[in-house]
Specification:
heterodimer; A: about 170 residues; mainly alpha; Four Helix Bundle (Hemerythrin (Met), subunit A); 2 domains; about 0% strand; globular; B: about 110 residues; Helix Hairpins; about 75% helix
Chain lengths: ~170, ~110
């Protein structure tokens, strides 16, 4: 096994195990910390695919900004394992798990047959995911969606402030 | 790496997200599971973009998918800020983050 394969399996196991722990752990703070581990593992996958820009953006935006926002809200509400609403209905617990596992089974079974000639994903090669190339495309072909997204951010900011403001 | 491995990894992460949305009652955990599903889709998009790079003759082939992933992250950031504001407002009104309290539209 080459170094790339070892890293792939290591990051995959890390991502899936910590994703399971996000769902399974009782305390919301632990869930958030496990989700941060998952995002770092996915960033590692991006680096393995030589998509360096997305790896950095994933760490900064997801692990850096979004998860800190989650952590901030959880600590503001002072949530812990005791204040966690218990899932009283055991049938929902079993039914949800079986439904999700069936979805995984059906999708894996369906997609196993479609890929007849196994395509190899290029790892460690290509300069498509580098900042130079993506920056050029973002500010030439995709400059209009880029500007629209700034309007989206402005409206989201105003919306968040208006919603979370105390009623006068 | 063969594309199958990336497909199955993304499917596993997506299914874990679906299970989390179905079985948890904490609104914040449900929101985090939605983020997990978004990330599974992003990972698959990047993996397919690298296949496109390998098979196409254009030097910049596959960069469109990575721009899409960037915009998905942008929209996710905006969504999280509004969604957490809604959860904070809900906590202030009901003093709970249990989603089962939100059944007033049922009657």
């Amino acid at each position: 096994m080459s170094v790339t394969q070892i890293l792939f399996w290591l990051l995959s196991v890390l991502a899936v195990c910590s994703a399971v722990m996000v769902v399974a752990s009782k305390s919301p703070v632990h869930s958030i910390l496990f989700l941060i581990i998952t995002f770092f593992a996915i960033s590692g996958h991006y680096i393995l695919l030589n998509a360096q820009f997305l790896a950095i953006v994933n760490i900064i935006v997801y692990a850096g900004a979004i998860m800190v926002l989650f952590l901030f809200v959880v600590m503001l509400m002072n949530l812990n394992a005791d204040s966690e609403p218990p899932q009283k209905n055991k049938y929902i617990l079993f039914g949800g798990t079986i439904a999700g596992a069936s979805l995984l089974l059906v999708l894996v079974a369906a997609l196993k047959q479609t890929v007849t000639t196994v395509q190899m994903v290029e790892t460690n090669t290509g300069n498509v995911g580098l900042i130079e190339n993506l920056g050029k495309i973002l500010f030439t072909d995709y400059v209009f969606p880029f500007e629209i997204s700034s309007v989206l951010f402005l409206s989201a900011m105003i919306g968040a402030v208006v919603i979370s403001k105390k009623e006068a | 790496m063969p594309i199958n491995y990336y497909i199955f990894l993304a499917l596993a992460l997506f299914s874990i997200g679906v299970i989390g949305v179905l079985i948890r009652r904490n609104a914040i955990i449900i929101f985090m599971c939605i983020e997990l599903m978004l990330n599974a889709a992003n990972l698959l998009l990047v993996a397919f973009s690298k296949i496109h790079t390998a098979t196409s003759s254009l030097p910049t082939a596959g960069s469109d998918a990575q721009i899409f992933v960037f915009f998905i992250m942008v929209v996710a950031a905006a969504e999280v800020s509004v969604g957490l504001a809604i959860i904070v407002m809900m906590y202030r009104n009901t003093h709970s983050i249990d989603v089962n309290f939100l059944n007033r539209l049922k009657n």
